[in-house]
Please model this.
Amino acid sequence: MKKNLTIIGMAGVGKSFTAEHLARVLKFKHFEVDKIITDEAAKIGANKYLLSDNEFLDLEKKAILSLKDETETVIDTGGSVVYVPEAMKVLDEISFIVYLSDYPENIKKRFDNRGEPYLVGMKAGMSFEDLLEYRSNLYEKYAHIKISVFDHKEDLLSKILKEYKS
Model:
């Protein structure tokens, strides 16, 4: 069994909610990578939502690399972490990676409700669904297991824990 658990997936899929609950059940630490990025951006006088994709991804990489010696930790990644191969390599080495998926319309609704202004990797003319499809291929490439939030509403945590411990 790997010493950490990492949650990946699109913004709005429920990574933070799931990671918080898993950390509580496992009595693990919980690191929210987006919070680390926000703090690091503030240190340089920047708002993370105003950073270029490359600047954001550099901070995301730095945040993940800073966790390489952690143990008994649930790592709640940002949705764009899959754009950083070096970060994904570290996560693969130190953790069991769970890809949380859901139907695009469910993710989009939650994302819209959160009111976040921007998604890394969103090119001009690209729809949310296009970005999700592109990222889904990357999430599947890096994940040790893919779990549908929709299909496991009632037993999501137990499903993840069972897979993590096996």
